[in-house]
Amino acid sequence: MDPLPNPAPLASKLRNTLIRYHSIGDGEWRVAKKTKDATVWHKPSEEFSGYLYKAQGVVEDITNRIVDHIRPGPYRLDWDSLMTSMDIMETFEENCCVMRYTTAGQLWNIIAPREFVDFSYTTSYEGGLLTCGISLDYGEVRPNFVRGFNHPCGWFCIPLKDSPGHSLLTGYIQTELRGMLPQSAVDTAMSSTLANFYSDLKKALKT
């Protein structure tokens, strides 16, 4: 088990990585799934042998409230059907923490429940917010779970200039589920999970 990293340089590196993903040209992405709530694209990840996913959709609400529902905190467990538990293990400052969470099995349990330990950081970005994270090798792995690993991930939430009260939410996700899994099952699950994330989030914000 690694010791906890110094949060400031890790947060800075993570933010810069996400901003770089956010500047990748449209031509490098291939559409993986499209629903009324979101479009999901993917491209080969630079971090591991799977895909970097990009998801984007307009969400009707103000930026701060949307990000409060996404980042580690009391809201996320209430609405995210994939997440089954969440504990804040360490808090460095208000916008920076280490959390451990577990996810439900997927695809008729072909993908068994997973556990993740992530460093999470939220910061301002172009009039909106960026909340991002990366997995750490920290804490004991609990029985009955496979420990997954999130390579740099994040959500940009930017208010729409011509439509106050609406925000453009763009996510970049690259999750290494680990364990013996067919890649096709992982790709199917990731695309569907990201599309469902938007519809579930929209329902939660209306309540």
TrEMBL record:
Residues 29-207 form the START domain. GO terms for molecular function: cholesterol binding; cholesterol transfer activity. Pfam families: START. GO terms for cellular component: cytosol; endoplasmic reticulum. Transmembrane segments: none annotated. InterPro entries: StarD4, START-like_dom_sf, START_lipid-bd_dom. It comes from the Eukaryota. One of its GO terms (biological process) is cholesterol import. This is STAR4 protein.
